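Changelog excerpt: complex records now keep ligands as SMILES alongside chain sequences, and the structure block spans every component. Example after the change:
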Amino acid sequence: MVDIEDYKGREQAYVKHVLLEQYLEALVHKTASAYPHIVYVDGFAGPWQSANENHEDTSFGIALRALRTAKAAWKSNGRDVKMTAILIEKSPTAFKELEKLPPKFPDVQIIPQKGDFVVLVPTILSKIPKDAFSFFLLDPKGWRIPLNTLQPLLARPNSEVLFNFMFEFINRAASINDPAVVTGLNELLPSGDWRQRLNQAATSDQRKEVLIDAFTKCILQAGNFKHVCETTILRPARDRPLYSLFYGTRHDRGLEVFRDCQVKALEAQAATRAATKVDQAEAKSRQTEMFGSLHEMAENEASTFLESEKSKAREALATLAPEKANPILYKDLWPLVLAKHVVRLTTVNQLAAQLRKDNVLHFPDWEPRRRVPQPNYRCCRKEKETL
Ligand SMILES: C[S@@+](CC[C@H](N)C(=O)[O-])C[C@H]1O[C@@H](n2cnc3c(N)ncnc32)[C@H](O)[C@@H]1O
């Protein structure tokens, strides 16, 4: 497990790595049950600001552990799954570290690749066999990435992506008129009327909404994904978004697992931000005992957000359920809710059961003693009885 001790002064990377670790462990294990070969691609691998001598605090370190663990688990069940990690890095110094990895992981095929990820897209694609499932981590330091160049990679079938959109820099860049900056951003966000909408945005929250919505649509389109969802990583000691992690998948099950991991990462973020704020306040005043309440307050940041997402999910369930004449199967309804809101499937199941009790939703196939809806249950809005 990633250890917060390795992330002093860069707690935002800890939150990103909690999410990556949780999700990769689940994803690699699950996909290895169906595919003979799993390929992890780290487009901007580093190592970068790593404090751990075994690089356990890096994205590729986390991925190699996930690949190794899943491989061993399946091997003990008599199933041999090939695991590959393609690690791309531009900096010669960092690349030297990547070259040392293969002997340390004899059970995983590691392909270190030196160069510019954007230029290497066709080479990388040619190294991924057709029968493999692939996961792309794109975690650049900046934002000058022409999305159209990545399109063939994002559109690869049997693939998922996690893209780090450097929100703070991009938001700032979006107010700059320099032609090179304007062109660069237009290449990252090649479609939509986001510039117009940004001009009309009055608050920082509205600006964020416009940029997140624009990039969600660009990624959905480029990768032909079914779902794209965003996780905001905040500055550790300030209430400001630093970056946005965009996850793209073509599977409802991927969305389900991702939301579980996202909730855990947001809880980890609330806890680390609370601790960071307390440390900084203490260091300023040297009065320890005053700050217990600050700790509690900040730690509730995740529950406040998740509670509000839960109530929006309840509303969405009630609104998205169709009229009686055209019922929807529950397995097609819950992904619509999870795609919009940061909520776990278990929570949506409970909400659906409660809405049934409250006479808002109707499930004609509900069996006795069932506590939550089953995937093949039909669902519709309960018709108001006329007097
Ligand atoms: C933010 S760091 C990656 C951190 C890593 N994903 C992690 O979480 O541990 C970005 C890395 O990308 C490298 N880099 C920057 N531009 C690149 C490019 N065009 N192609 C490949 N690597 C690049 C940098 O040298 C740096 O090591």
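The CA atoms of residues 234 and 241 lie 4 Å apart. Residues 44, 46, 48, 58-59, 88-91, 94, 116-118, 139-141 surround S-adenosylmethionine (CB under 6 Å).
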